[in-house]
Amino acid sequence: SVDQNGVRAKAYQLLTLFYANKEIERRADPDSQNDPASLLQVQFFQITMTRLLLEISIYMRTLDDQFERADATSGVKIIYLENRKSINTRYKGLICLFDDLSVRDVFNKIIHADVVAPYFQDGGPNHEIDHRNELGWLAAMEISGVSYPKPNLVKWSHLSDHVYLSGSQNGKRWHLLLDVTAFISSVYYLLDLNGVFTKVTA
């Protein structure tokens, strides 16, 4: 049987992995090669992200198989199938952007992907060094009474919520853009076997 709380924990770890990336990049000097947090991230992010995506997908596909084989009169099976139906409707074209895949199809694509690569986006004017530079700039003008040019903003980037997936099927390449937040939401709601999600979306 599938450890449902274990799957939830992995989904939480995957979510925090992406949130942590943004904060690490926001605090680290992009011109430094010696920041421990950045070095750890370079060493472990890709392998941890890929492992979590794969483990979650394998567990969820196994759970899906178990419910497909369960007694048709099982109340929990009925709730699960209703959850799956609601999620497939609610997240149509959202879990994998622009592609209308069922949640099970998404799990299969992740399992069979041979390329898993996160997308980056511009960080904008929010870097921690920008705040320190601005404070120093204001203090210098106040002390000296001289007007200095405003410091240039730090150029930095962080991961978006999107992951590029690619693989082969029947000799043809396929390509998908996974929305990690929508993926995690679908896993969370599929595991809501008390029927709360079904009631909310009914």
Could you give a short description of this structure?
Helix content is about 60%, strand content about 15%.
Task: Tell me what the structure shows.
It is a single chain. The protein is of the alpha+beta class and 202 residues long. 58% of the residues lie in helices and 14% in strands. It contains 7 helices and 3 strands; from the N terminus they run ααααβαββαα. It has helices spanning 4-27, 36-69, 75-90, 103-112, 128-144, 180-190, 196-201; strands at 115-122, 157-169, 172-179. The chain has a 3-stranded antiparallel β-sheet with strand order 1-2-3. Strand 2 (157-169) and strand 3 (172-179) form a beta hairpin.
- How much strand? 5-15%
- Largest sheet geometry: 3 strands, antiparallel
Give the helix tally.
7
Radius of gyration from the CA trace? 22 Å
Distance between the termini: 28 Å
User: What is the H/E order?
Assistant: HHHHEHEEHH
Instruction: Name the shape in a single word.
Output: elongated
- Count all strands and give the number: 3
Q: Detail the poorly predicted runs.
A: none
Q: What's the quaternary structure here?
A: single chain
Mean pLDDT across all amino acids: 91
| Fraction of residues in helix | 55-70%
Q: Could you give the order of strands across the largest sheet? A: 1-2-3
Question: Helix- and strand-based class?
Answer: alpha+beta
